[in-house]
């Protein structure tokens, strides 16, 4: 994995840059540093959740106001210094991996809920508020924030916006892009803009759609207006066990084909089931090869009816286990096992590599079978935990980084899984983003023309390529190169088109 070569001229000016940034962010109102430049103190920022890759940042800056963010970006723009925005650092794709010649802009001090507007069913929060923190702030009135990644206790809303995070309930309630109404964002030249607001979609270009999932390449978000929902009257979860992963995959497609949209529908295979049960004791059956957790929510009579229909569909697809939650505590316990699956798998392997790809639901049985073949080919175990309802796979490749060559083998295995996702009509990522992990696989999904168009959007916001460079795009082009027009024999392409 190659990152841009550090700029020697920038590194030579490090002392000058540190002094300038300290004048902008001298420290917090409640104490603490505003700028960190000691190598031993910056170690905490050398990687994000993808810990296989590490780089010590040149400088860490911890602003706490939009004005400070604006001043920092303006200085970096004027002095051609690269900037990597960082939230809680839970990214699993290396999206917040620092640069040796760049400023790491930590947004952890932006941690306040600014306003709760129940009449308009929205809340305005700073990007450092945790995902779960939004729900905690509004639950006394019976509201909640729908996206709920497994890391929701730690991941922040700013990171959710950057990666377009989802969670176990995104099948029915959508990902971050479906639950954010507006943002305040600072551009690389220090300009502060508002996109969207406390209202439904605005007319004109969908700039909010471009910002959500942009992985810190377009600007730095300092305020987010999110949609909050009333909790459903009833919610019950069903555990369904199957003799094979393929039969569980067939059941997923059959439930959706029947017109049933569960609040969540998750799948775990045998290794993940046993790891989660040993860790959480959620009451999962140990004698099945695959487990579906299906949650139905809504009015009580509707939920009862849907549970009966799901039971019929599951039986027709070979289910050998069926258990319905009988209390709210039991429902939450079912989900506790699923949400703790990642740390649980960490107890059975020295290391694991968490993948993220999305496929059409109908290809689920085929893809699971081919992943088993790949597991045998590479000699590495894999535990499957994923959002079955929307086809978002999270295979966990188990390896030992202390064994020479195993990390590289795990990376090759993961690349083959992602290529398989694209091959069957899916995409490289569902909610973890591209970052550095999938960057060099982008040509497997996009043509050169597609990638050039995406980079032109990047250039419109950041013409000097200073924001989070080295991420997402497999080959960096200068914006001037992308803007060049080929002239053949004195003629521009399509000379009849009006040009401005």
From TrEMBL:
Protein's recorded name: D-lactate dehydrogenase
Swiss-Prot/TrEMBL keywords: FAD, Flavoprotein, Oxidoreductase
Domain FAD-binding PCMH-type stretches: 53-231
Transmembrane regions listed in the UniProt entry: none
InterPro entries hit by this protein: FAD-bd_oxidored_4_C, FAD-bd_PCMH, FAD-bd_PCMH-like_sf, FAD-bd_PCMH_sub2, FAD-linked_Oxase-like_C, FAD-linked_OxidoTrans_Type4, Oxid_FAD_bind_N, Vanillyl_alc_oxidase_C-sub2
The UniProt record lists the keyword Ligase: no
GO molecular function term, any single one: FAD binding
Organism: Oceanibaculum indicum P24
Pfam families: FAD-oxidase_C, FAD_binding_4
Known cofactor(s): FAD
Superkingdom per UniProt: Bacteria
RNA-binding keyword on record: no
